[in-house]
Specification:
The complex is a heterodimer of chains A (about 325) and B (about 325). With about 325 residues, chain A is an alpha/beta fold. Chain A is about 30% helix and about 25% strand. In chain A, strands 6-7-8-3-9-10-12-11 form an eight-stranded mixed β-sheet, with helices on both faces. Chain B is an alpha/beta fold and about 325 residues long. Helix content of chain B is about 30%, strand content about 25%. In chain B, strand 11 and strand 12 form a beta hairpin. The chains are: A alpha/beta (about 325), B alpha/beta (about 325). At the A-B interface, helix 6, helix 7, helix 8, helix 9 and helix 10 of A face helix 5, helix 6, helix 7, helix 8 and helix 9 of B.
Chain lengths: ~325, ~325
C-alpha cells in the first residue's frame, strides 16, 4: 500500500446565506496517497470545489466557516494551524491550480515575475537563482523557448500555455499534494490531452498525490486511481476507479455513467436517446430529510425519506463505500 | 445506419462562403492583414437533418454560424436558404427570413435578459414578427412553447435567475422555437451544462427535431456530443472545413489526421480501456498569420514538403465523405 500523505476526516464547511445556514461540505472524509490521484466528481453545486478550498483554508470568512473535522498532512492538523503557519503550507506543501487559466494569472505582471514571486515566497534565493528556477520549471512543463517566455505577459499566451504556467507555479515548491480544480475544463480536447499527459508525467517524477476535481468521468477514467462521487455536500460513493466504473453501487453514480455520450454508444444507431437522471440538483437550503438524492432516484423507497436519517457511507464490498440503503447489486452479491 | 440517406430536399446550401476580419495596425490604422475566420467554405444541409460542426476554439465555427444568419455579414460567397440567396436580401427581407432561422447560444446565463420575465422573453419574438392577434392566441402559443421544452406553466411569471442552467437553456430553446423556425444554429448549446443535464437537453433537441421537422447546425468543440445528435459531421480547422462525412464514417473511418487526433483526444469513460493516444504538439496557430499550404502541417505527423506549399483540394471518398489532405489515413 502506498504511503498516505493527506487525510481528510469528517470535514464540515458551512456558509451563512440570506436564506439561512447551508452546509455545502457535509462530513467529507478521504485519503490521498503518495504518487496516486484521487478524483472528486460531481455536478455543479455538489461541494467539490469548496472541499478543495477548505483543504487550502481559503474559505471566504466571515460568510463561510470550516465548522469541524480534521485535515491531516504529515502528522499536523491543518485546521489547528495559525493563519501564519498555514501560509507556509499553502503553495508549498499543498498547491492548487484552478479552472480558469485566463483569470488566475495577473495581467499586469510578466509570467516570469509571477513564477519568481511564488519561488521567493517560500525559499530564500536570489533573484537570479529564482529566474533560473522559473526557466527550469517552464522547461519541465513543456513550454518552448522558456528564457523568452518569462518576459511575456499572460495575454500573449494561449489558454493551454497559461495552464502550463499555472502548473509550473504550483510545482515551484515541489508540493506533496497538488489540488487541480477542473484544470482542463476551459481547454480544447487536444490541449486537454496534452495537459493530462503532462500532469501524469510530473506526478511520476515528483511522486505527488493529486486531487483532481472534475465533472468529466472520461477524464477520471483516464487519470485517477480512486474516485469519490459527491452529491449535495456528501461523498456518496468512494472506490478504486476500475471498481467504480464496473460496479457502481449508488444509483446516482450509475446515472452519471449512463448519461455520458460515448462514441461507441452512438455507433450504428440513428439518434439513440441518451440516458438521463430526471430532475436537478436540490437546493442546499431545501434538502429533503433522509437521502438528498431521493427525488431523482428510481430506486427510492420509504426508508430513504427520513426516519433513519441519510444513509451512511459504508463499505458495501471491500474497499468500496457507498451511501445508499438500496445499492445496486452485482454478481458478487448473493 | 445513415449509409443510404435518400436525397432529400436541401434546405441550406453554402457556396464558397468567406468572412475576413480586417486587422488594423500602425500609426494611421491602415489595414495590415486579415483574419480569415471563414475561408471558402461550401456545404449543404438537408431538411430535417443535423450537421455537426466541430473544431477547436478559434477555428471559426461560431463565426460561420453567425454568418449563416447574416448576424455577421459575409465577405464573399452565397448562402442559399430554401431556394433564396439570402446574401442578396435587404435588411427588411433578411428580418423576415430570420423568422425561419434561429440561433441558440452557449451561455444560458448571459443570453437571457435578467430583467425580463419568461413571459416577456418568449413574447418578444412573437410581437416582432406579428405572430398573434389576440392575447388569448398569444397565451396559447406560450403554453405550447413551454410544453415543448417541458417547463411548467407557472414558469411564465418567473425571472431567469430563478432557473437552473439546464432550465435556462430550455427557455432559450423555447424562445428560438417561438417564431416557428425551420433551421436552428445551436452554438455550443450544451457545452456549459453538467453531463446529466447535457443529456436531457440533447434528448430534447432530438425530440423537437422529430416532432417539428427542424434542421440543425450543431456547433461544438466536442466530437462525442456532436456524434450523438448529428447525421453528418464537418470538422473545421483555421477557417476551412477539412473533412465532412456521415457520422458513422467519421468515427470509423477518419481520413484527415486532424480528425483522428480529435477523436483520439476524447477521454474514454472506461478505466480498463488503454489506447494509444495521439497528442498533438503545440496550439492552434494564429489565424492572422496561418501556416502556408495546409494550415495543419506544423502539428501534423504525416506532413511532407508538399503540405507546406499548396492547400489540398477536397478529395471525395464516397458520395457523403470528403476531406482535404495529401496523406489521408486510408493509405495505411
Amino acid at each position: 500500500m502506498p504511503e498516505k500523505i493527506l487525510t481528510v476526516e469528517k470535514l464540515v464547511t458551512q456558509f451563512n446565506t440570506e436564506q439561512g445556514v447551508i452546509t455545502p461540505v457535509n462530513g467529507v472524509s478521504f485519503t490521498v496517497y503518495k504518487g496516486k490521484t484521487l478524483g472528486i466528481v460531481g455536478e455543479s453545486g455538489s461541494g467539490k470545489s469548496l472541499t478543495a478550498l477548505s483543504i487550502m483554508r481559503l474559505i471566504a470568512q466571515p460568510m463561510g466557516n470550516i465548522v469541524s473535522g480534521h485535515i491531516w498532512l504529515e502528522g499536523q492538523d491543518l485546521l489547528q494551524l495559525s493563519t501564519r503557519a498555514m501560509r507556509t503550507i499553502r503553495g508549498n506543501k499543498i498547491s492548487m491550480i484552478f479552472q480558469e487559466p485566463m483569470t488566475s494569472l495577473n495581467p499586469v505582471f510578466t509570467v516570469g515575475y509571477q513564477i519568481r514571486e511564488a519561488i521567493t515566497f517560500h525559499q530564500k534565493v536570489s533573484r537570479k537563482e529564482a529566474e533560473n528556477q522559473a526557466i527550469e520549471l517552464l522547461t519541465l512543463v513543456g513550454i518552448p523557448a522558456p528564457e523568452k517566455r518569462i518576459h511575456e505577459y499572460p495575454h500573449q499566451l494561449s489558454g493551454g500555455m497559461r495552464q502550463r504556467i499555472m502548473i509550473a507555479m504550483a510545482l515551484s515548491s515541489r508540493p506533496a499534494v497538488l489540488i487541480a480544480d477542473e484544470p482542463t475544463t476551459a481547454l480544447d480536447v487536444t490541449i486537454q490531452a496534452q495537459i493530462l499527459d503532462l500532469m501524469a508525467k510530473l506526478q511520476e517524477e515528483l511522486e505527488m498525490g493529486i486531487i483532481l476535481i472534475t465533472h468529466d468521468l472520461g477524464v477520471v477514467a483516464e487519470v485517477c486511481h480512486e474516485v469519490a462521487v459527491m452529491y449535495a455536500g456528501k461523498i456518496i460513493e468512494y472506490a478504486p476507479v476500475e471498481e467504480l466504473f464496473k460496479y457502481p453501487k449508488h444509483p446516482y453514480t450509475q446515472g452519471l455513467l449512463a448519461s455520458i455520450p460515448s462514441l461507441e454508444m452512438g455507433q450504428g444507431q440513428t439518434h439513440k436517446r441518451l440516458e438521463t437522471i430526471k430532475g436537478v440538483v436540490p437546493n442546499l437550503n431545501q434538502l429533503p430529510l433522509g437521502c438528498s438524492f431521493q427525488d431523482r432516484c428510481y430506486k427510492v423507497q420509504q426508508d430513504c425519506k427520513g426516519e433513519q436519517g441519510p444513509p451512511p457511507l459504508e463499505e458495501k464490498v471491500p474497499n468500496h463505500l457507498a451511501a445508499c440503503f438500496h445499492p445496486l447489486k452485482d454478481h458478487r452479491d448473493k | 445506419m445513415h449509409t443510404n440517406i435518400p436525397d432529400k430536399e436541401i434546405l441550406l446550401e453554402v457556396r464558397h462562403l468567406s468572412k475576413f476580419f480586417p486587422v488594423k495596425g500602425g500609426l494611421l490604422g491602415k489595414q495590415t492583414g486579415a483574419v480569415r475566420a471563414v475561408d471558402d467554405v461550401s456545404f449543404s444541409i438537408q431538411r430535417g437533418q443535423t450537421l455537426g460542426l466541430v473544431g477547436e476554439s478559434g477555428c471559426g465555427k461560431s463565426t460561420l454560424g453567425k454568418t449563416l444568419l447574416r448576424l455577421i455579414e459575409p465577405s464573399a460567397g452565397q448562402i442559399i436558404f430554401d431556394g433564396i440567396d439570402i446574401t442578396q436580401l435587404d435588411n427588411k427581407g433578411m428580418r423576415n427570413m430570420r423568422q425561419k432561422m434561429q440561433l441558440i447560444f452557449q451561455d444560458p446565463y448571459a443570453s437571457l435578459n435578467p430583467r425580463m420575465t419568461v413571459d416577456s422573453i418568449l413574447s418578444e419574438p412573437l410581437k416582432i414578427h406579428g405572430l398573434y392577434t389576440t392575447l388569448e392566441e398569444k397565451r396559447k402559443r406560450l403554453y405550447e412553447l413551454l410544453d415543448y421544452v417541458q417547463l411548467p406553466k407557472d414558469a411564465l411569471h418567473k425571472y431567469p435567475h430563478e432557473f437552473s442552467g439546464g432550465q435556462r437553456q430550455r427557455i432559450c430553446i423555447a424562445r428560438a422555437l417561438a417564431v416557428k423556425p425551420e433551421f436552428i444554429v445551436c452554438d455550443e448549446s450544451v457545452s456549459a451544462l453538467d453531463v446529466s443535464i447535457q443529456a436531457q437537453v440533447i434528448n430534447l433537441l432530438m425530440d423537437l427535431q422529430e416532432e417539428l421537422g427542424l434542421t440543425y447546425l450543431f456547433i461544438a468543440h466536442d466530437l462525442k456530443v456532436v456524434e450523438f445528435i448529428s447525421h453528418e459531421v464537418a470538422v473545421m480547422y483555421l477557417g476551412k472545413i477539412v473533412e465532412k462525412a456521415l457520422f458513422d464514417d467519421i468515427y470509423q473511418n477518419p481520413q484527415h489526421p486532424y480528425t483522428q487526433a480529435l477523436l483520439s483526444a476524447i477521454p474514454i469513460p472506461d478505466p480498463t480501456y488503454k489506447k494509444e493516444r495521439i497528442i498533438l504538439k503545440g496550439d492552434v496557430p494564429n489565424p492572422i498569420n496561418p501556416p502556408s499550404g495546409c494550415h495543419f502541417h506544423p502539428r501534423c505527423w504525416r506532413a511532407t514538403s508538399i503540405c507546406e506549399e499548396v492547400y489540398p483540394e477536397p478529395t471525395d471518398l464516397n458520395d457523403h465523405h470528403w476531406f482535404r489532405c495529401y496523406h489521408p489515413l486510408k493509405n495505411d
